[in-house]
Amino acid sequence: MKITFILLNLFMGIFSPGVNAADDYSRQRQQMVADIQDMVSDTRNYIGKAALDDRVMAAMRKVLRHELVPDAIKPHAYINSAMPIGENQTISQPYIVALMTDLAAVDQNSKVLEIGTGSGYQAAVLAELVDHVYTIEIVEILGRRAEKDLQHLGYENITVRIGDGYHGWPEHAPFDAILVTAAIEHAPEALIDQLKPGGKMVIPLGRQHSAQTLTVIEKNPEGKISYHEILPVGFVPLTGDR
Fold first, then answer.
1. pLDDT tens for each residue of 196-237
2. 240 lies in a domain?
3. Cβ distance 91 to 50 under 8 Å?
4. Which residues pair with 83 in a beta bridge?
5. What global pTM score does this model have?
6. What residues are labeled active site?
7. Residue at 225 is within a domain
8. Which of 7, 93, 96, 130 is the most exposed place for a label (fewest CB within 10 A)?
9. In whole angstroms, what is the distance from residue 204 CA to residue 202 CA?
């Protein structure tokens, strides 16, 4: 009986690789979240907190990052690091994705604009928390791939547009939050204009290959703008017309 049980397990292991792979990715996600928590603790003096919002961390545990990256890097999808996704672009480090989401201070009623769809991972994390995500990608091949992958994963509250995010998406403004996932020296006025009073923009400010700072731009209920520098970061540059 014992031998039969062992052989049955071997048979199931050979012919059910998807189950084992799913379990392995689940373990990797749990480890990724633990790594993010450690990094939050290490950077608490920069970000002003020792833990991120529980809702954000739950989204990080849930979103299937390995389904939103090229096949070649799927085995490494949950390493807490930025990775290349083609077309000279990268998928952001999970810690940065979690931090930017937390800083945006969104809720289930929020309408969010993302500039720089990339792989679609940041949009997916946001979609777990908000009413709708509008995301713009200037590199068509990346935008189309992300749109297809997000649809495959069942995200019905994400709308992808191919275009220049510098000018935002005025047709759907104002936004409760705007996340920019590429660096620029100065926040575009069009994006500030499209931010709802009381809303926040999270954006890396600075030149490529130079000092960049993750910054929260807040518009108070009266429309006054304030800037809050968070911590040094490194992002690819925002491209498009100026």
1. 999 999 999 998 777 899 999 999 999 999 999 999 999 988
2. no
3. no
4. 91
5. 0.89
6. 92
7. yes
8. 7
9. 7
